[in-house]
Sequence to fold (335 residues):
Amino acid sequence: MTVYRIVFHPLRSFKGPFLNRISKLWHLFHAVWRHGPSELTIFHPEVFNAIAGPGTQCKKSDWYDMLYPLVALNSIREKTGYVSRRSKWDQALKATAMHDEEIKVVRYATQLAQALRAAEEAAVDVTDWFSFFSFDVMGDLAFAKSFDTLATGYWHNSVKLVRNGTDLLGVASSWLQMIAWCKSTMNERLKLKVDKPDASYWLIEAARQDTANGLSLDMDNLYGDAIAIIIAGSIATTLMYLFLNLAENPDIQSKLRADLLAHGWRSDVSLLKCIPFLDAVIDETLRLYPAVPTGGSRMTGASGATIAGHYIPPETTIVAPRYTIGRRQKSFQAL
Fold:
């Protein structure tokens, strides 16, 4: 096996530490870098469209099986079955649906502002408060209940479970506890009757299936989607870094504040979409600090793929680190 990986493997022509030809021991930087026997890390902006854009023949790698037997929308590896599930998520998160929930978001934003204002001159760990805000909003929009972390100012046990379960250094028991809590949260939501469809309503609809005994729910799909929406909806990374950037750049902060006040944003949140500078600030924050810095690995199909002039053989796992690509000077062209 060692001789094959060094001499005969389809990726033998790609640069990388010599030991990476045998096993995954190192991870260095180059436009295309072999970081494992059948794995490449590509630091070129073309990689995103090539592995995840329209018409791509790549599929998600086996890393996405980590929830098995549960299946979240984002863990579906094959294109079959993805479109119908995606349509339900689109219905849950489309602009018109979120517009109906605007009053809830404003209420939590007001709670957040009041809590920070109450601290006066005292130092405040805003990373905690931004997480409280995100978690409460996620709970209300997706599961028709708030976890009241903004009201109490303390980490809810469920928040701790999610944080510990998603920690890269966490233990398996924390991960399993988080999975169990996500399941119980969805079970509680199934018992609720809501006045109008919330995000979970559409997830429940997506999980419905016809069986010999009539209509039932595919609980593996439903639990998987619950995990996805809880993890994605409770992480306030972008909010944290956005305010960090504003604090470090007072001139940008002043311009943004002036634009917000000029548009009367306090009385009509929908006007926020009319402020291009706000979009620019958010986009720049996402470039510098993407919510998912790396990962999202894909595997090339039977015909392989050509990326940045390099032919990638079939069945090759490709990793595209957004954090690094977004900061490389070579990723941008002068206007």
User: Anything to note?
Assistant: The beta strands are 32-36, 39-42, 59-60, 208-211, 214-217, 298-299, 305-307, 310-312, 317-319. The chain has a mean pLDDT of 81. Residues 46 and 308 are 6 Å apart (CA to CA).
